[in-house]
């Protein structure tokens, strides 16, 4: 069979499983109301949690930083280490309360690169089964022994830790806010287990950074001395792109020397680094945005709960409505779009089988009126689909 026929057959199979994806152009994606296919939609699908992606201060910072060039010209270990990096990494380490920090091109690269660099095939890694795909990919690349513990189940984690020899090097890794369920990791218990079993603890703060913890420094901030490696993205609440790894000088220096997606790639654009610095300055002081986001999240969860929807275990700005089948999730997302709401259907492999869902995310910029209107629309759509009676 030819390659083109083989690939075509694979796409047909994905389509039969309602797993075929397609790009749709979104205009004015930084705003609360977006235009997609000529339709005006309330944006309940973005990670721009604090509304900073379109903020004039970040856009100004990007313009000002472009004096260092449009591109970094090379890997940072060659001649791409322009002066803003040091400032950004110092800003991140001070904010996170760690000795050191390293900027990386994206959250995906940070997780894959750090895990592949830290782990070898003789090590054991314990990963929450709902951790982000980039964590799973980093583990697979490392060839370490992979133990997936039931979601947030500390008893199961401890059982697995006990089963492995004391002599094994162990690493525990978790999202702090889970990207598809919107619930939080039990960090206090993870720190306890990490200390009891002498493990290394890495946390992914992608959906917590800029929002939770003192000055938005993340849920791991209070446990900063017990967490060996903090990863966070600059692409969500910070409104930019890129990611950071923060920890002790020793750990960060090790990653700088061994992490392939750091060594073998061109440094981030100066304009992107400049926006990260400005975004951190803003999130550290702007409590108004954080409080608005928390109030909006609470309202969305309360309204959906009262309307009788299954929103799983969400306690954050990420709120799923569990549909079960791929077909139902895709149909609901499509019907919501028709009703004026941008929300995405999430299917396997992003979530476990039979838990397909429509994932809603709220930002600091939504109004209470918009959230209440959205819940009314969702109710109408699901009533029309025969889910609500
Ligand atoms: N970790 C988690 C938990 C995420 O949700 C994401 C993004 N969806 C990433 C890592 C990857 O981050 P980035 O988009 O910056 O590559």
UniProtKB/TrEMBL annotation:
Catalyzes the decarboxylative condensation of pimeloyl-[acyl-carrier protein] and L-alanine to produce 8-amino-7-oxononanoate (AON), [acyl-carrier protein], and carbon dioxide. Homodimer. Its EC number is 2.3.1.47. It comes from the Bacteria. InterPro entries: Aminotransferase_I/II_large, AON_synthase_class-II, AONS_Archaea/Proteobacteria, PyrdxlP-dep_Trfase, PyrdxlP-dep_Trfase_major, PyrdxlP-dep_Trfase_small. Pfam families: Aminotran_1_2. CDD domains: KBL_like. This is 8-amino-7-oxononanoate synthase. Transmembrane segments: none annotated.
